[in-house]
Amino acid sequence: MTSKRWRLAWPWLLLLAVALAAAWLRYGLIESSAIGQQCGGGQAPWWCDWRQALVLGFLHNVYGIAALVATALALLWKRTWVAWLAAALGVFALELYCVEAGALALLLGSLRLLRVQATRVAPIEHDRQRKQQIQPQP
Fold first, then answer.
1. In total, how many domains does the chain have?
2. Percent of the chain with pLDDT strictly greater than 70
3. pTM of the shown model
4. Residue 132 falls inside a structural domain
5. SS3 assignment, position 12
6. Confidence of residue 122 (pLDDT cuts 50, 70, 90)
């Protein structure tokens, strides 16, 4: 692959990494019954506070709100990193139980990211129809 294609693929590969990390957090840390029992005891490890913060985050819809704010910014600004952030927070929110907001943020963030990448690859010609018509000579 050429350098230009890799540059276009990096945001999508990083989005896949965010999805895998969110899946690991959900199934490996939050939903694991063994870790739940370990954190429920009197001598809980230090990382149980992080697990509790993750649980409180989706109980109070923090991830969904953050994803929607990033989506609104992505719709206002035509920047690749903002569109990627909206899609990444959408994946994270979708994976961590904020389904409606996460799905909307993932969809709109991905569409904005595609649009920004498409305009960088081939600029849009606004006067395309005029070039196809024959103009009379004066």
1. 1
2. 88
3. 0.83
4. no
5. helix
6. low
